[in-house]
């Protein structure tokens, strides 16, 4: 799939896709983070499942509780999405030109996806650290002497004050591994599903072309999102634990963290938050890709 476009338009389209992701997916993400934090530790707070967690948030905090931490998430995910899709598109175009490939090519998709995923991890790590710390401090944060933040800026300043600038990048290794591996899975599924659907629907009449494009974006994006999180959820569990651990001396090695979780909670602990994560993955990523495809068309980015 060859693409011809001005560089900045690809980044604008990705930015809009990121906003759509947060609007649709953040409530699910809040439930996921609380499950990962509280159901993998030894204190008294436990949730039966994602529905129980969501119900407790709504009862104690209302709908706003589900969007706790959304401010940093809007900023982080929007810019991350802009870089993610923009850098992927640029590198893919470059490799396609050299390899002269037509249709999805793993020699093009894999390095482009891994590169863009690794690059955005440096933007995503600080914003997710602030988001996660804000999410776990809700009314269920009943741990004695737990830190309370007034907002993401207060969280950032206090993190730097107590842990230094390095503290903002706590969980960086886990984020890098999650995004590079997950990005590869995401774009492989997205490109192949999109190519397959277009090949089957290319005979669709012009009157239904817009609807066909929208449906293709929803299905390819949704399936790619599910594949992403199915592949990397344990790394995300490790990242959440690392970023929300009040002990600044605790390990930042995601594999050591997962080993500790496995010893205490088994494989189920390594997949804490699986339910809300997968429930979020399809609609959030479907919204992202549908928005991306719409923005590409609106901005006049040509695609073959």
From TrEMBL:
Gene3D superfamilies: Mitochondrial carrier domain. InterPro entries: MCP_dom_sf, MCP_transmembrane, Mitochondrial_Carrier. GO terms for molecular function: L-ornithine transmembrane transporter activity. It is found in: Mitochondrion inner membrane. GO terms for cellular component: mitochondrial inner membrane. Solcar repeats lie at residues 5-94, 104-196, 212-298. It is a multi-pass membrane protein. Keywords: Membrane, Mitochondrion, Mitochondrion inner membrane, Repeat, Transmembrane, Transmembrane helix, Transport. Signal peptide: none annotated. It holds the Pfam family Mito_carr. One of its GO terms (biological process) is mitochondrial L-ornithine transmembrane transport. Belongs to the mitochondrial carrier (TC 2.A.29) family. This is Mitochondrial arginine transporter BAC1. It comes from Nepenthes gracilis.
């Amino acid at each position: 799939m060859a693409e011809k476009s001005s560089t900045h338009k690809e980044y604008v389209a990705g930015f809009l896709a990121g906003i759509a992701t947060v609007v649709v997916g953040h409530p699910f993400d809040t439930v996921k983070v609380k499950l990962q934090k509280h159901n993998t530790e030894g204190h008294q707070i436990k949730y039966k499942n994602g529905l129980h967690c969501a119900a407790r948030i709504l009862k104690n905090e209302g709908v706003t509780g589900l969007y706790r931490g959304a401010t940093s998430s809007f900023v982080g995910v929007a810019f991350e999405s802009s870089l993610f899709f923009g850098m992927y598109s640029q590198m893919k175009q470059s490799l396609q030109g050299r390899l002269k490939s037509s249709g999805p090519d793993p020699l093009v998709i894999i390095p482009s996806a891994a590169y863009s995923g690794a690059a955005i991890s440096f933007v995503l790590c600080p914003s997710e650290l602030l988001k996660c710390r804000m999410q776990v401090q809700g009314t269920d944060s009943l741990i004695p002497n737990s830190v309370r933040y007034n907002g993401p800026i207060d969280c950032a300043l206090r993190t730097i004050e107590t842990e230094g600038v390095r503290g903002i990048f706590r969980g960086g290794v886990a984020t890098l591994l999650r995004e590079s591996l997950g990005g590869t899975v995401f774009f492989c599924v997205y490109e192949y599903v999109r190519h397959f659907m277009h090949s089957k629907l290319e005979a669709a009449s012009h009157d239904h072309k817009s609807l066909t494009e929208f449906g293709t974006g929803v299905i390819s994006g949704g399936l790619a999102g599910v594949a992403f999180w199915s592949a990397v959820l344990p790394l995300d569990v490790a990242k959440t634990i690392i970023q929300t651990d009040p002990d600044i001396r605790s390990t930042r090695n995601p594999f050591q963290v997962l080993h500790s979780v496995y010893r205490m909670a088994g494989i189920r602990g390594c997949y804490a938050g699986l339910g809300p994560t997968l429930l979020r993955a399809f609609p959030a990523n479907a919204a992202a890709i549908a928005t991306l495809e719409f923005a590409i068309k609106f901005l006049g980015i040509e695609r073959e």
